[in-house]
From TrEMBL:
It catalyses: [protein]-L-isoaspartate + S-adenosyl-L-methionine = [protein]-L-isoaspartate alpha-methyl ester + S-adenosyl-L-homocysteine. CDD domains: AdoMet_MTases (cd02440). GO terms for biological process: methylation. The keyword DNA repair does not apply. One of its GO terms (molecular function) is protein-L-isoaspartate (D-aspartate) O-methyltransferase activity. This is Protein-L-isoaspartate O-methyltransferase. It comes from Variovorax robiniae. Keywords: Cytoplasm, Methyltransferase, S-adenosyl-L-methionine, Transferase. It is found in: Cytoplasm. Catalyzes the methyl esterification of L-isoaspartyl residues in peptides and proteins that result from spontaneous decomposition of normal L-aspartyl and L-asparaginyl residues. It plays a role in the repair and/or degradation of damaged proteins. Belongs to the methyltransferase superfamily. L-isoaspartyl/D-aspartyl protein methyltransferase family. The gene is pcm. SUPFAM superfamilies: S-adenosyl-L-methionine-dependent methyltransferases. It comes from the Bacteria. InterPro entries: PCMT, SAM-dependent_MTases_sf.
Length: 224
């Protein structure tokens, strides 16, 4: 497929995200996502972050396999999670679960710096290459156990997790700045909820469930 074809498909993807957001108004509390989030979704070429043989399906609103039993998230979910995170231009963001780097690329359009942790070495290597090819110079990736966050660069203004633990890892809430926000899917495999965690100025946490989701399990390298 040619670049103009992908551009057209990306515009159709944005239209579908817009429509699904309207239907999710009761969950999200609004009928439209932030303009900057939609612009980032419209700019990042999702076809560059899927296996080559799946490129024709890159803009279908569905998760797609990327190898190692992992998936690239559904575009609507990426857009919603990014919107809920409320990324600001000065934010330093921790991402847990790099995959092939699509969510990292979207965040790179919005944040000052993105620190992303990926458990699987080969996925991390591919993500680095794909992000470098697109000039995403404000993303740093390391191979490691995402449940531990990235202490060397903590605290973070925002944290986003793209795989689901049963319980929110304590290290991630610890590494979140007072006034910060985390978006994370969590729960048993058949009962996951997308959750927004906020830490107030005193360090107290509040959580809010958005809607039911289905993510790959966040693996803990130390218990596997």
């Amino acid at each position: 497929m040619s670049d103009p074809d992908f551009t057209t498909l990306r515009q159709l993807m944005l239209a579908e995200i817009t429509a699904k957001t309207i239907f999710a108004t009761s969950y999200l509390g609004k009928a439209a996502l932030r303009r900057l989030v939609m612009e980032a979704m419209g700019k990042v070429p999702r076809h560059e972050f899927v296996p080559f043989e799946l490129r024709p399906y890159a803009y279908v609103d569905s998760p797609l396999p990327i190898g190692f039993g992992k998936t690239i998230s559904q575009p609507f979910i990426v857009a919603v999670m990014t919107d809920l995170l409320d990324v600001q231009p000065t934010d330093r963001v921790l991402e847990v679960g790099t995959g092939l780097g699509y969510q990292s690329a979207v965040l790179s359009e919005l944040a000052q710096r993105v620190y992303s942790v990926e458990l699987i070495d080969e996925l991390a290597s591919q993500a680095r290459r794909r992000l470098a090819d697109l000039g995403c110079s404000n993303v740093e990736i390391k191979v490691g156990n995402g449940c531990n966050g990235w202490l060397e660069h903590a605290p973070f203004d925002k944290v986003i997790v793209t795989a689901a633990p049963e319980l929110i890892p304590p290290a991630l809430t610890y590494q979140l700045k007072p006034g910060g926000k985390m978006v994370i899917p969590a729960g048993l495999p058949d009962a996951q909820q997308l959750i927004v965690v906020e830490k107030d100025a005193s360090g107290s946490l509040t959580t809010r469930e958005i809607f039911a989701v289905m993510f790959s399990t966040l693996e803990d390298a130390e218990s596997g």
